[in-house]
TrEMBL record:
<dbReference type="InterPro" id="IPR026838">
    <property type="entry name" value="YheC/D"/>
</dbReference>
<dbReference type="Pfam" id="PF14398">
    <property type="entry name" value="ATPgrasp_YheCD"/>
</dbReference>
<protein>
    <submittedName>
        <fullName>YheC/YheD family protein</fullName>
    </submittedName>
</protein>
Length: 272
């Protein structure tokens, strides 16, 4: 699924296949398959924890975190929203997923054991945009902390955007945190370039990157219509200003007309 102008690619499977062609990016993409009973069982066996999600989903809707705990009376768990259900067999689990799925195609992806802060998982959004010179440039980095008890970090699922340095500083020190942020920007940049090779008309990429407990970065998802307004949550306004300026130049958001109420209303309804 590509929109008319070719700037938005909704299909997560197509994007995964596209970036896998660049080995330096592919090394950071968790194993991803089309979800069916067989791939579900196989991946759970192999990884113990996976995420299943709609091929064309948004806002974390329909995303489920599935775990296999051998030795447990009901070894399979499915975490969606605030709810965790348990099942005795893969077949029972698959039956439950199929009902939730309602015939939409789903992916199964190796789960990343995301770092936590105060018991809440977080991942990182790296914004990469075409700059006025026509080159890809990482313009913003922000962490998203999941709502307590949730497996997804999306803002529209109750996630909280915070400065990454606030989360990594205490773990790595200021210098370590800033080095880690630099590596995340570089990985975001490489992913944007890899995706643009397959889809030359895209001009913004929001890379969702998870850090596992060993601080290895994993590319969870590449959004081609990332929300530029997310960066307004940073205290330092310079990032937000730059992201917005580029988005405007790319024609992705309207020019500011603060007195126009309808425009302001539309903007606050924007997403992702
Ligand atoms: N493999 C994974 N390992 C760990 N966490 C994951 C994984 N896949 C998804 N998640 C969590 O679920 C969230 C939502 O998943 P994802 O970004 O793939 O779908 P989406 O947000 O619904 O789609 P879009 O970003 O296009 O709106 C991620 O931001 C992340 O917090
Ligand atoms: Mg996402």
């Amino acid at each position: 699924m590509i929109n008319r102008k070719g700037m938005h690619i909704a299909n997560k499977w197509a994007k995964t296949v596209a970036v896998a062609r660049d080995p330096s990016v592919a090394a950071h993409v968790p194993d991803t398959r089309r979800m069916n009973r067989k791939s579900l069982a196989k991946m759970l066996d192999r990884y113990g924890m996976i995420y299943v999600k709609p091929v064309s989903g948004t806002f974390g809707r329909g995303v489920m975190r599935i775990e296999r705990s051998p030795g447990h009376r009901l070894p399979y768990s499915c975490h969606a929203g605030l709810d965790i259900k348990r099942f005795a067999s893969v077949d029972k689990l698959y039956g439950h997923i199929s009902r939730t799925q309602r015939r939409r195609p789903y992916l199964a992806q190796r789960g990343v054991h995301l770092l936590k802060t105060n018991g809440r998982r977080f991942d990182i959004r790296v914004m990469v945009q075409k700059n006025p010179a026509g080159a890809w440039e990482p313009t913003g980095v922000i962490a998203r902390v999941a709502q307590r008890g949730k497996a997804v970090t999306n803002y529209h699922a109750g996630g909280t955007p915070v400065a990454l340095s606030r989360l990594l500083g205490p773990k790595l020190g200021a210098a370590g945190a800033s080095r880690a942020e630099g590596r995340l920007r570089a990985l975001g940049l490489r992913s944007a370039r890899a995706l643009a090779r397959a889809y030359p008309r895209i001009n913004m990429v929001g890379a969702d990157i998870g850090l596992d407990t060993r601080l290895r970065p994993w590319i969870i998802e590449l959004n081609t219509s990332p929300d530029p307004y997310l960066f307004r949550h940073l205290k330092d306004k310079s990032t937000h200003r730059k992201v917005m300026r580029y988005a405007r130049l790319l024609g992705r958001i309207p020019a500011p007309r603060t007195k126009d109420r309808t425009l302001v209303a539309k903007r606050t309804r924007r997403k992702r």
